[in-house]
């Protein structure tokens, strides 16, 4: 039976097609004449081809160490340090300020629902070649093939200790301020970080898999309380913690991966957050212990991650940021773009927001200038102006701007205006006094939104980088984090999760705009690190699927740099 079909055009009043503007008979004839139709024999064609990821050359060694080895660097360490380990068992007899009983008391108000399923480090297994097959071609990829990155461009992946390690109470680790998230006492057992990704046990497996797909840099953080359980200068150093991170670094080198280390990613020792006046000396005590041991093999170090957004989360006072300045800072920023750039009040709101988020740290560190006037003039902010000595001490003591530019947002004044808001501590937008939104003035969402904070909005990447570059004039910018966690990712079928299109588009669009920022805007971006190489504990959220499985986004991410890194 042959079926006949008729083309039906939906018409509107006036007789015009709903899909096109009316055209003349002459133009119709012209259009038809330009197209040539013909028949031929049909045959199937192969539209896929199998290609495999290329692993790294290993092991990795450096012709010249980046710092003296421990035998020379040990002279920087105090001579009376106690090296030990702890258990959760109290001593039957009093044993002093830093004894076993004191350590057990640190954990007295914190307990976890689940225990990790492992007790020892997992031996890595070989990655099957079947897992290293590239996905189908991404046909909607924009290709700026002529724009290249230098051979020493720093690219790779990142994660943080608290978000992936688990094993919070093992091997003498002390509690951190983040451990209260998901503890039994918080009535939020679903986000118990004592398990997380079990990275404390599976780091060898993870490093082997990154090397197999060709990722050359791994950025991770060292847990301060895993090294200094009590967090305080002069207190005992936890030997198993030192051994653990020494092996993480050596494993990276064994597989050909260059390690990048962040000294603190929000997991301050629990006793530190209540009084940051001792932060400089306590942090230095911790940093000396790890840098004396590892700096010969680690070329890049970041001090504090996103400390500039820690007020109200980790810190209780804006003055706490002054203490952080003495140890440097990595910045988070969701750039505030004026909702209406032609409206002066919207521009003022955006700039004021940036003053608080970036200016408080950026002014003294990069410009040698005082805190922004907008912050100092805000009543009841509890932010004391820096002294000339403080500005002199911190200015220029940072090599590059470490940046986490996930997304932009639109800013406008609060309904009462900026001045009235600044004078009213109870205003919900105080002290920033900027109403922020992802919705444009015309009502459209700026881009496809993720589960938490980022969006596919590449049109603002260059403005994010350009604002920092031209306002604070750093020597270089390292993008320490950028990533996208899709909504309801864990609810999709395994193959759908693996296809991972939204995250793929985010990374590709973001990186294409970074290329333009470098070549067209003159911004010195020296590297980019994708967040996160594992679906991590997003500070209490386990909304994403935890699987050690390669996804399309990682293949395309690696492929991007293979295409754009100069040989």
TrEMBL record:
Molecular function in Gene Ontology: beta-glucosidase activity
Gene3D superfamilies in UniProt: Glycosidases
Keyword Secreted among UniProt keywords: no
Keywords: Signal
Bilayer-crossing regions: none
Annotated signal peptide: 1-20
PANTHER family reported in the protein's UniProt record: BETA-1,4-GLUCOSIDASE (EUROFUNG), GLYCOSYL HYDROLASE
Name of the protein in question: Beta-glucosidase
